[in-house]
Amino acid sequence: MSNFTDPLRPLDVVPAKMAHSPRNRLPDNACDAHSHVFGPYQDFPFTTASSYPPPLAPCATYLTMLDTIGAKRGVLVQPAPYGINNEALVAALQAGGGRIRGVAVTQRDATDEALQHLDSNGVRALRFNEMPSPQTGKPFAGSVGLDVALSLASRMKALVWHAQVWARCSDVPAITETLECEGLSVVFEHMTCFDPSLGTGHRDFQNVLALLREGRIGVKLALCRVSKQAPGYKDLRPFHDLMIEANARQLVWGSDWPFVRMGDAAPDVGDLLDTFYEWVDDASLRNTILVDNPARLYRFED
């Protein structure tokens, strides 16, 4: 665990794990739809002390990662230690020159001007966390729950923003229905966080497949938080296949770089893409998931 002089301006940080180039060349305008930036901490201190060793993963390092894997586009997601201070996220969006979109975090008292500022800089969604901390069983410090989405729903709709939610698989149907009642579309992180040991026939995963077939949810195909069988993640292959079969147009691919709280188990983004190419051998389907869907969802311009 890192030692801090100031927990909001950490000095002892974990270097971000850099990627190797994947074996396969990505299609033009491919997108890594789930990553994070951290630091530099003298410019962007945390708003709450981090519950994990903080990585040094500033925008310049992130853009190098995207270039290494051959992804022209990326989506950055606000991490919990920054709370509702989206300055590091916005600075990265500005530095990206149009190749990056963002998923921010804010509270119900955000002004219209603040939301418009986020939108004009490339934010296309707000993140809501319904996943309890494994250490405390309580919400992660700095996270914002679904109740805030209900308060912001009308203003999110006006901006054509969706809700991005980190939640347990068993909660997906209820969350979807709640957001639908407010007219909000939803994208779930980390493949909906199902338990692979329960099998593909378990009712929770079958509910997710039904919602995908109906086009009622989007899902991020990010493997590393769901499986403990790194680096091949063989336990996830049947789930991954069934999600694509259910509705490939509702899926985007994300790495989850720089892999906080994973330590030595952190994967290589290039390896994750090689696994994706192995599992999805149809070029048209790969293009749908890597290019077309994120372009539509995050409104990238050609």
* Integer tally of domains: 1
CATH architecture: Alpha-Beta Barrel
What is the H/E string?
A: EEEHEHEHEHEHEHEHEHH
Provide mean pLDDT, rounded: 94
What low-confidence regions span 5 or more consecutive residues with pLDDT below 50? Answer: 1-5
Radius of gyration from the alpha-carbon trace, in angstroms: 18 Å
Which topology does CATH recognise?
TIM Barrel
CATH homologous superfamily placement: Metal-dependent hydrolases
Number of helices: 9
What is the CATH C level class, in words? Alpha Beta
Major beta sheet, strand line-up = 2-4-5-6-7-8-9-10
Largest β-sheet summary:
8 strands, parallel
Termini separation (Å)? 43 Å
Strand content: 5-15%
Q: What shape does the CA trace take?
A: globular
Structural class determined from secondary elements = alpha/beta
The helical percent reads 25-40%
Number of strands: 10
